[in-house]
Amino acid sequence: MDELVLRQDDDGLTTLTLNRPDALNALSPQMFVELRAHIDAIAEATDEVGCVILHGAGRSFSAGNDLKAIAAGERAPSPYFQAETLEAIEALPQPVIAAVHGHCYTGSLELVLACDLLVAAEDARFSDTHGKWSMAPTWGMSQRLPRRVGIVKAKDLMFSARVINGTEAVAIGLANKCVPADDLLAEATSLAREFLANSWHTLRADKWLVNNGQSKSLAEGLRFEREEGPGTGPDLQDRLEQFGR
After folding, report:
1. For helices 141-149 and 151-160, what crossing angle results, to 10°?
2. Any bridge partners for residue 98, and if so which?
3. At what angle do helices 29-43 and 81-90 cross, to 10 degrees?
4. Where are the domains of the chain?
5. Digit-coded pLDDT (tens) for 144-200
6. What is the DSSP letter of 140?
7. CATH class for domain 5-196?
8. 121 phi and psi, to 5 degrees?
9. Distance (Å, rounded) from C-alpha 11 to C-alpha 196?
10. Is 202 exposed, middle or buried (0-12, 13-18, 19+ CB in 10 A)?
11. Quick check: pTM over 0.90?
12. Any idea what the Cα angle at residue 176 is, between residues 171 and 180, rounded to 5°?
């Protein structure tokens, strides 16, 4: 059977590709099993992997949760496996960039919300369709979407189930930028390379401090940064010497 998630490594950048193009990369339980295995491996490879791109093969990033697979009896290894996989993506030490084209509906929208940044193609279409099926979110939509775009905009998208394009996704703060579909991977890769040129220690420190500070008050967060931050990295001296040349 073909791999449902492909991994490509290139000089510190790992690209994960959802690989069910004939099914618009619908998120089957088995795809989540393969995705989780890659995520767990990347989490342990901080010396080899500095940044991650997540995107989909074919015409779409992903049409969302695979209802056909669920109806056919396919099940994940545990009741909250998919939600916990998204938490594992969010907790990766490395920055994760979602590169989204075509469909990005419901479960796949929850998936990209677990990523740090999002580059959208002009043909990207985002929607939370839970309301169309009388379903309530369990993978994090109600928590991550308001934190990304604000409570009012999140409620609008969740209550209406309307579809927005890449341009509107940027306007409301869901995506970082919107580019022509043909330029999507190149733009995401360029962004990743920009990050990778900086200290990987600082990339990991910044992500850890920002993510862990979200649940704290400002005063608590400031104290957390001062007292629990990881400090300088092992490449500090080399970078200072290069600056002086």
Report:
1. 130
2. 54, 118
3. 30
4. 5-196, 200-243
5. 999 999 999 999 999 999 999 999 999 999 999 999 999 999 999 999 999 999 999
6. S
7. alpha beta
8. -80, 160
9. 9
10. middle
11. yes
12. 90
